[in-house]
Design a protein that fits this description.
The complex is a heterodimer of chains A (290) and B (287). Chain A has two domains: 38-197, Beta-Lactamase; 207-289, no CATH class. Chain A has seven helices and four strands; from the N terminus they run ααβαββααβαα. Chain A has helices spanning 3-64, 78-89, 115-125, 158-161, 169-175, 199-250, 266-289; strands spanning 97-102, 132-138, 141-151, 188-197. By secondary structure, chain A is α+β, with helices and mostly antiparallel strands. Chain B folds into two domains: 7-199, Jelly Rolls; 215-272, no CATH class. Chain B has helices at 179-184, 216-223, 233-237, 244-252, 261-264, and strands at 16-23, 27-31, 34-38, 43-45, 49-51, 57-62, 67-70, 75-78, 86-98, 107-110, 115-118, 121-127, 131-139, 142-144, 155-156, 162-166, 172-174, 209-213. Chain B has an 18-stranded mixed β-sheet that branches. The longest helix of chain B is centred in the C-terminal third of the chain and has 9 residues, at 244-252. Chain B is globular. The relative contact order of chain B is 0.15. The chains are: A alpha+beta (290), B mainly beta (287). At the A-B interface, loops of A face loops of B.
């Protein structure tokens, strides 16, 4: 087996092992990053919702307080603003969703359904729970959900949600007296739930992984060709020429030309040593013939 | 009719303010016996009779920090010679935000059937052809009423309470304003009245412009409003009797304002022994 073949077989084996292990670790890293990105997206969306709620509570509601005496304006309700904000956001990102899932909501569009009830009950049973993250299979594929409790920490909320009598009459006009009452201070009445699809970040991660593999293969091919060329020019060809000269000398062709050496590398040193050895051998033979 | 008699309250509190918002066309003010047109920046004072046009919305800040808004097609008389600064709403819509800062005297806004007074509160008053309506929006309000016998039956009201005073019917209350009231109310009344505009460096006073001396038609509504609010009108409009048209119109409707009988047809001095002119005693004003 030729030297270059041996060399290439080893090189390819090392590359394949490296590629497989790199792919494995890069894939795991990409998945981890994708999940972290999804969680980060969910958190950003959750914080956006909280920001909209705070803005509505601190700036919009005071402006509309007087109007509510005449006609109830849901725009003054923080949860309504947050949901409307996300409804607009969903026009560009339909896979994302936000819901203020509530067991006994004033606005029935906020009523908790199915798995959301379990999330709400988790917060009702775990008073100290601040956040819940989980995966679920949705209509658009696998999604991650991030949930935070809707706890009544502001007693002013109870003005509209404790009893029918204490609620603004215009609120009753709008939503009726059947829902959204009987809430208690500090009670977890619902949960803010953001769902974010895995699809997009995963697609991005897979795309990055493919690019990484292509790059790795490309680098290997470049190195493979370069190393083979160098091996051929610097090692294989001089060794072949040296072997040819040695063959000629061994067959009695003492007039065979010297092995031409250039540079100061190991092959040149070998050639010089060979030439010296041949000259010494020619001198010794001539002395014996005389 | 349950006439709101404010006579015990009347005795000399002045109202002074400046118009900070005047949306729509210029509105009119009758000041003294002159008819003026006014716009944003105009001053208003006790004795002024303000009449807005169908597309007007007027807001005025008073000297004491209170804010009053007047809706379209409304007539408001700033009562003169009153102990309590009083807005008399003869027709249309008025919203009074009395002393938002919580300092000041009691102010009143009244229609011919009901009204309210407040030291710090927000009252919306509507005066229609058949009924007056009042809505207690915020603060503390005292509803000004009289029973059929004319006795004061003022009562404290609750926030969001709504009252309707109709002709010959007891005043009714409800825990919220009626849909018809809200639908008819000027939309800007749904918001808090803007204050502090008069202190803006951009604010410019704008004197009302003289149009002409008042005609009888201009002041008819003033001259025929409940007698308790008509104090000082004889002195105020006496000069206009030089105008034959004014005199004739006044004379033709003398029964509606009998206090002018002696002015238009003075009795001759008794020592002359002549027969007094044949002037029939005027009927009492319709309450």
């Amino acid at each position: 087996m030729k030297l270059i073949l041996k060399f290439n077989l080893v090189l390819i084996a090392v590359f394949l092992i490296g590629l497989a292990s790199s792919y494995y670790y890069a894939s795991r890293l990409a998945q981890r990053n994708a999940r972290a990105e999804i969680q980060e997206n969910a958190r950003i969306m959750m914080e956006s919702a909280l920001a909209v709620r705070a803005y509505t509570n601190s700036q919009i509601k005071p402006l509309l307080d007087t109007q509510i005496k005449y006609k109830f304006l849901p725009q003054s309700v923080p949860s309504y603003s947050a949901v409307e904000y996300f409804n607009n956001l969903r026009k560009s990102f339909p896979e994302y969703s936000y819901k203020e899932a509530t067991l006994n909501p004033t606005n029935l569009r906020d009523r908790a359904d199915g798995w959301e009830i379990d999330v709400v009950n988790h917060f009702r049973e775990n008073v100290d729970a601040k956040e819940l993250i989980g995966d679920r299979e949705g209509a658009t594929g696998q999604t991650l959900y991030l949930a935070r409790p809707l706890r009544i920490n502001d007693a002013t909320c109870l003005r509209c949600h404790s009893t029918v009598e204490s609620a603004p009459p215009t609120l009753i006009d709008q939503y009726g007296a059947a829902n959204g009452f009987g809430w208690q201070f500090k009670e977890a009445v619902g949960a803010q739930i953001v769902t974010v699809p895995y699809t997009l970040p995963q697609q991005r991660a897979n795309s990055s992984l493919r690019s990484f593999v292509y790059l790795l293969v490309g680098v290997f091919l470049f190195l493979f060709v370069t190393v083979n060329l160098l091996l051929l020019i610097l090692v294989v060809r001089p060794v072949r020429r040296l072997a040819l000269t040695a063959d000629q000398v061994s067959h009695g062709a003492m007039d065979a030309p010297d092995f031409a050496t250039t540079g100061g590398d190991e092959i040149a040193a070998l050639g010089q040593s060979f030439n010296r050895m041949r000259n010494s051998m020619v001198t010794a033979i001539n002395m014996l013939q005389e | 009719m349950l006439l709101l008699s404010l006579a015990p309250l009347l005795a000399g509190a002045a109202l002074n303010g400046v118009v900070t918002i005047a949306d729509g066309e210029p509105f009119t003010i009758i000041r003294g016996d002159k008819l003026l047109t006014a716009a944003k920046g105009a001053g208003i004072a006790s004795g002024d009779f303000i009449e807005t046009q169908p597309r007007n919305f007027v807001v005025a800040e008073l000297q004491d920090g209170s804010v009053v808004a007047i809706g379209a097609s409304s007539r408001v008389y700033l009562l003169e010679r009153a102990d309590t600064p009083t807005f008399v709403l003869l027709r249309g819509w008025l919203k009074l935000d009395a002393h938002p800062a919580g300092k000041g005297r009691v102010q009143s806004a009244v229609g011919s059937r009901l009204g309210g007074s407040t030291r710090q509160g927000v009252l919306v008053l509507h005066s229609g052809d058949r009924a007056d309506e009042a809505f207690h929006e915020a603060g503390a309000i005292t509803l000004l009423l009289r029973d059929r016998a004319g006795r004061r039956i003022d009562r404290e009201t609750k926030v969001n309470e709504f009252f309707v005073g109709e002709e010959r019917s007891p005043v009714t209350s409800a825990p919220r304003p009626s849909e018809e009231f809200v639908a008819a109310m000027p939309v800007p009344f749904r918001d808090p009245l803007p204050d502090g505009l008069a202190k803006s460096p951009r604010f410019r006073p704008n004197e009302p412009k003289f149009v002409r001396d008042v005609s009888y038609a201009d002041v008819n509504v003033l001259l025929t409003m409940p007698r308790e609010w008509r104090g000082g009108f004889v002195e105020r409009f006496r000069g206009r009797l030089k105008d034959p048209a004014f005199f004739a119109a006044m004379d033709a409707r003398l029964s509606l304002h009998p206090e002018w009988t002696q002015i238009l047809h003075p009795l001759p001095p008794p020592e002359q022994g002549t027969t007094p002119p044949s002037v029939q005693p005027a009927a009492a004003p319709k309450n």
